[in-house]
Amino acid sequence: MAQYVRNRSNFINPYNFVPVDLRNTGRANVAKRSEELLTGYFQCRVRCRTPLAIPDVEHREDLGRQHYKYPFFSRDGSPVIPGSAVRGVIRSVYETITDSCFGSVQGNPAVTARSSKAFKPGLLVREKSGWKLYQAKKYLVVVDRRFYDRQSLNRHGIACCADLADRYKTGAEVCFEPAVDQRGNELQYVKERNGRRIPIGSYVKRFQADLSGSSMQRGYICIGEKSPKRHFQGIFQKGAPAPNVRITEAEFQRLEDVLEEYRDERKNKLYPGPHKGYPGYAYAKKNGVIPVYYSVENNKLYMTFAALGRKAYNKRWNDLVSEKAHDKCDRREHLCPACALFGTAEGDKFGSRVRFTDAKYTGNMENCLNSQGTTFGELGSPRPSYIPFYLRETGTNADYSVGYDSNQMEIRGRKFYWHHEPDTDRGVPRNNRNATFETVRKNAEFTFRIYFDGITRQQMELLAMAVHLNENDLGGHMCHKIGHGKPLGYGSVKICIEKCMVRKFDLEEGWKETEREIPCGVTCHTCNDATLRALKTICDFDSLSRYRGVKVEYPEILLDEKYKDQRGSLNENVLASHRWFTQNYRLGSKAPERKLPEITDHDLRLQKYTATQITDRDVKNDRRGPGRR
User: What is the b/e burial string over 178-214, where b = at least 16 CB atoms within 10 angstroms of the residue's CB?
Assistant: First the structure.
């Protein structure tokens, strides 16, 4: 296997987190406001500092091989930035400067992550007193014909059951016979990892569903998710009760939270088909025997569906923030500043006091769009399970493996992206994991309005601050991020307020509009100085100008120069970006090599890794297979 060493090449991670004052959030009863309320609008202008991509997903074009091109969103043939896109960005900043609740988080979701430690096989069994967890021994049923042939398993009389997932359901009881060597010892599959030989399980020679009169051993089928690299399904043999474990309703709920994560179509897009999302769980639960994987860490039980699967933490989202007063607003008499202005759909519900129109393009259409489109590099969904980037230590020697359940760590804050010029000349190859986007060119301008109704003067000033970031100059450097491709440098925009109009009703003249001075230089923010300083830093388009030659990009693996001629023949996994994360925070480690720097740190750079010590096993079509007996 390839080895990975840190090198001198640096990069800056595309995103970071503005810290949150987790001690308190101001709340107010919106029905008891006695000050003058204002109604009117801001006339706003947007200028693109970098190309902008707002994809029209309904009119995508298939360019072949599941690669799509997305036109820029438009109405009546003219480019448009939907009001909802602008609203979301402005609300995020408003929440930050007023230390409000996390409005983008819906309900009270579970917090799940892929474990950094391997789980043990187990069986959840329903008994008269309730569900009970038993230890289990895992036996391997070969389902991959290519693996079967490479390992020459036929010489041991082992059968290959490629259609096991179609013939059996998870939790079904079977009889089986383990495969043994000439000395009568169970034949095991052993995998080498980092120079260590790790036993995965014993092979099954044969098995059958007919239990009557059989003297063979008994166990329960465990069907994993579909994967092109799956060599085995499992048979779990029941052992002794798991020590010091009690199954409660909360434990079951966390297991089903993990199940919902696997079934989320927005996150689990690979390998569609009948075996996606563990469909056998319902049968197993009804049947009273559920094969699971489990671990007990710091006296807390975690259960999942794979040896290196996801786990749901004991703490849910509200547990991470509610004790510090950042839980969701659900009562009209108890609203945070952002919900009091933008509204909330939680609990009693409260209507928004602001409305954003679509931003319309104001220039010449002839030179507006890059109609050929730009192929973006691959973009993944957020990975809050990567603890070194998403949590911050609050104590000394924090154990990162405890993750979100740790009392020595807390959430980093609100996620923002750094501004930087995109590398439009990179020439990204097209595949089914990326897409091509029509973009609006740099310096294009749009106009829109923000209507407000019945808000206080302070709310109007804070809203203005969230719009222009206390720099009401179209040529300024305090910018927002809008649209698609933010990590790649796209979507940096400067927004200014051109006019502030307030409407009042006069008994003689009716509605009368009066122009007001545009609020700027506002100091009535309620976030602490550290939060404001971090926000100003990451919103500054010129913040990273001191890092000459250092790219803003996701972590990547470089290839040792002596192997450059082999690049085309390497397995894609060797240089996959996830290798950086696993090397930085290794399996079972209590701490990473490098944590994500804070926004205001003197040095924001991280180091890349180089793949070296390339072996035959790292080359495509390796005949020996991924493991040895």
Answer: bbeeeeeeebbbeeeeeeeeeeebbbbbebeeeeeee
